[in-house]
Write a structure and sequence with these properties.
single chain, alpha+beta, L-fuculose-1-phosphate Aldolase, 8 helices, Aldolase-II_Adducin_sf, Aldolase_II/adducin_N, Class II aldolase/adducin family protein
């Protein structure tokens, strides 16, 4: 594989395949559905996406499909698999509008879907949730197949790095694969904690607006660090101890 792709694309493929493999290990996959896309460094309009029909645990670096933002397939190692149109509509919209975004993750996790159905959305119940205090929201418009939805989706996301797709699921848009995995992991944990707390029936303690704002501020990359970069080597070691075939 190293002879076929540039060094940058080769590294991106390995990291993206690793991200796919990590998702089911932490309960964030949905059979053969959903997508994680990564922009190939040095390009403006080339992204990598999973072959539609593969489970996340099957993804390898060489199995990823290369497309451009028009949806044209540039490199597909599979004769019998292609890409999911709904995944293309959502992901290409974000990559096309946000040149600061290197990776987009969209999930249909149980907790994420549950919170997406709540009118109040994500509540600042935990420190983890306060990280996403300014999370964006996009109203449900049915299965994402209509290209004209792209403009509304991008407008709703704005400059945020995370969005709740109402009655649908979660989306994160980050500068790198490492940061995107970290963001979706903690967003998922915030949703799980909220569902658990609300299901308990106990009276909820919600911190003040001032505390929520302070906590959100402390999570900003410019204040402390870009969360995910330090953690990523540990995540790769976690995978390597279990199954290093994602690198293939």
């Amino acid at each position: 594989m190293t002879e076929k792709y540039s060094e940058q694309e080769h590294r991106t493929r390995i990291d993206l395949a690793a991200c796919y493999r990590l998702m089911p290990l932490f309960g964030m996959s949905d059979l053969v559905y959903n997508h994680i896309t990564a922009r190939i460094p040095g390009t403006d309009n080339e992204i990598l996406i999973n072959p539609y029909g593969y489970m996340y645990e099957e993804i390898t670096a060489s199995s990823l499909i290369k497309i451009n933002l028009k949806g044209e397939i540039l490199d597909n190692p599979h004769a019998d698999y292609s890409l999911n149109q709904a995944g293309y509509v959502i992901h290409s919209a974000v990559h096309g509008a946000r040149h600061d975004v290197g990776c987009v993750i969209h999930t249909h996790s149980r907790a994420g879907m549950a919170v997406s159905c709540m009118k109040a959305g994500l509540l600042p119940l935990t420190q983890t949730a306060m990280r996403f205090k300014n999370i964006a929201y996009h109203d449900y418009e049915s299965v994402a197949l209509d290209m004209d939805e792209q403009a509304r989706l991008v407008s709703d996301l704005g400059v945020q790095d995370a969005m709740i797709l109402r009655n649908h699921g979660l989306l994160v848009a980050s500068p790198s694969i490492a940061e995107a995995f970290n963001a979706v992991y903690w967003l998922e944990m915030a949703c799980r904690a909220q569902v658990d707390a609300m299901c308990s029936g106990a009276e909820l303690n919600i911190p003040s607006e001032a505390i929520a704002t302070k906590t959100h501020h402390l999570y900003q990359p410019s204040v402390r660090r870009p969360f995910g970069l330090m953690e990523w080597p540990a995540m790769l070691r976690y995978l390597d101890r279990r199954d290093p075939s994602y690198k293939d």
